[in-house]
């Protein structure tokens, strides 16, 4: 349970990456956020329920694709 003021966003919130860092291990490439998410240097995430969010770097967006459509594109 988050004791920060204001409270950190939950792991299910759209802004979940804005939670405060509780433990950082840059030498291993990961950080533990207050909401239980493990955030990796490649922007991948491990959720508290065991779910995974694949890396989502802005460099993976094809050139010339509007930002709103980029979420629906797959890069080969």
Classify the oligomer. single chain
The overall pLDDT, averaged over residues, is: 83
Strand runs, count: 5
Q: What is the CA-CA span between the terminal residues?
A: 40 Å
In percent terms, what proportion of residues is strand? 15-25%
Please name the defining characteristics of this protein.
disordered C terminus, globular, single chain, mainly beta, 5-stranded antiparallel beta sheet, about 80 residues
Task: Set down the secondary structure blueprint.
Elements: E1 21-25, E2 30-33, E3 38-40, E4 45-46, E5 52-53, H1 67-70
Antiparallel strand pairs: 1-2, 2-3, 3-4, 4-5
Q: Can you put this structure into words, describing what you see?
A:
There is one protein chain. The protein has one helix at 67-70, and strands at 21-25, 30-33, 38-40, 45-46, 52-53. The chain is mainly beta and 76 residues long. The protein has one domain (16-70). Strands 1-2-3-4-5 form a five-stranded antiparallel β-sheet, with no helix packed on it. Strand 4 and strand 5 (52-53) form a beta hairpin. The radius of gyration is 14 Å and the shape is globular. The chain starts with 20 loop residues before the first strand and ends in a 6-residue tail after the last helix. Residues 70-76 have low confidence and may be disordered.
Offer a concise description of the structure:
The protein has one helix at 67-70; strands at residues 21-25, 30-33, 38-40, 45-46, 52-53. It is mainly beta and 76 residues long. Strand 1 (21-25) and strand 2 form a beta hairpin.
């Amino acid at each position: 349970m988050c004791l920060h003021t204001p409270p950190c966003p939950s792991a299910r919130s759209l802004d979940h990456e804005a939670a405060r860092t509780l433990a950082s291990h840059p030498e291993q490439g990961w950080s533990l956020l207050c909401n239980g998410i493990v955030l990796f240097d490649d922007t991948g995430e491990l959720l508290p329920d065991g779910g995974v969010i694949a890396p989502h770097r802005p460099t993976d967006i094809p050139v010339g694709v509007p930002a709103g459509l980029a979420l629906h594109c797959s890069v080969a």
